[in-house]
Structures are given as C-alpha cells and as structure tokens.
C-alpha cells in the first residue's frame, strides 16, 4: 500500500494511473489503480476522494520514504 501525497519533493515519485476500484472505509479510502499494467493500492483521506471515479486517469504521488516493496515470488519485503 502507498500513500498519496499532495506535495512534491525529492522523495516523491509521480505516476499516472487508471482507477479500478474505490473502497470507502469511513474516514479513509483504498483506491486500487493500475499503471503500465501493474496493480497498486493507495490509502487516502475520504475528503480527498470525493471527486474520484472508476476509470478516471489521475496522477498519484508515491512517498518513497513510506513505501514498501515486496518480491513477487518469495513475498519478502525488499525495502528493508
């Protein structure tokens, strides 16, 4: 899972993604999207999700300091 951030800095990475699913969980939402055929999930504040729609193309900012990357085959965290 990644955090969507609103400010760009040297520790963020921007990608454009197509929204597949939006899960409303009360005060936060999980936005499932894909970019370049790869699936991602972003956790965002519900107030920031009001204008999001399925199949919208939007820019996501990855806060690489908070990101976790896992090996697909062995499921180990490779960012540690």
Can you walk me through this structure?
- With 80 residues, this protein is an all-beta fold.
- The chain has a single domain (2-63), classed as RNA polymerase II/Efflux pump adaptor protein, barrel-sandwich hybrid domain (OB fold (Dihydrolipoamide Acetyltransferase, E2P), Beta Barrel).
- The protein contains no helices and five strands.
- The chain has strands at 2-3, 12-24, 28-35, 38-45, 57-63.
- The chain has a five-stranded mixed beta sheet with strand order 1-4-3-2-5, with no helix packed on it.
- A hairpin with a 2-residue loop joins strand 3 (28-35) and strand 4 (38-45).
- The protein is globular.
- The two termini are 15 Å apart.
- The relative contact order is 0.31.
- The model is unreliable at 1-8 (pLDDT under 50).
Short description:
With 80 residues, the protein is an all-beta fold. The protein is 0% helix and 48% strand.
Topology:
Layout lengths: L1 E2 L8 E13 L3 E8 L2 E8 L11 E7 L17
Parallel strand pairs: 1-4
Antiparallel strand pairs: 2-3, 2-5, 3-4
Q: Largest beta sheet: what is the strand line-up?
A: 1-4-3-2-5
Low-confidence sequence ranges: 1-8
Count of β-strands: 5
Which architecture name does CATH use?
Answer: Beta Barrel
CATH class: Mainly Beta
- CATH fold assignment: OB fold (Dihydrolipoamide Acetyltransferase, E2P)
The CATH superfamily is RNA polymerase II/Efflux pump adaptor protein, barrel-sandwich hybrid domain
Strand % is over 45%
Radius of gyration from the alpha-carbon trace, in angstroms: 13 Å
Helix fraction?
A: under 10%
Q: State the end-to-end CA separation.
A: 15 Å
Number of structural domains: 1
Shape: globular
Order of helices and strands: EEEEE
Query: By helix and strand content, what is the structural category?
Result: mainly beta
Number of helices: 0
The pLDDT mean sits at 78
Largest sheet: 5 strands, mixed
């Amino acid at each position: 899972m990644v955090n969507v951030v609103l400010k760009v800095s040297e520790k963020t990475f921007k990608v454009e993604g197509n929204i597949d699913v939006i899960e409303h969980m009360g005060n936060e939402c999980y936005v499932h999207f894909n970019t370049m055929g790869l699936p991602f999930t972003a956790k965002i504040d519900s107030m920031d999700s009001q204008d999001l729609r399925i199949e919208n193309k939007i820019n996501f900012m990855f806060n690489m300091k908070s990101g976790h990357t896992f090996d697909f085959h062995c499921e180990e965290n490779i960012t540690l």
